[in-house]
Amino acid sequence: MKKDFLVSVVVPVYNEEEVLTDSIHKLVDYLTKNLPYNWNITIADNASIDGTRKVGESLASKDNRVYYVALPQKGRGGALRKTWLDSKADVVSYMDVDLSTNLNSFKPLIDAIIHDKNDIAIGSRLKKGAHVTRQWKREVVSRCYNFLIWCLFPSRTFSDSQCGFKAMSRRAADTLLPLVKNNKWFFDSELLLRANELGLKIAEIPVEWIDDLDTRVKIVETAIEDIKGLLRVRFTPVARLNSIHIK
Question: What CATH architecture applies to the domain 6-243?
Answer without folding.
Answer: Alpha-Beta Complex (3.90)
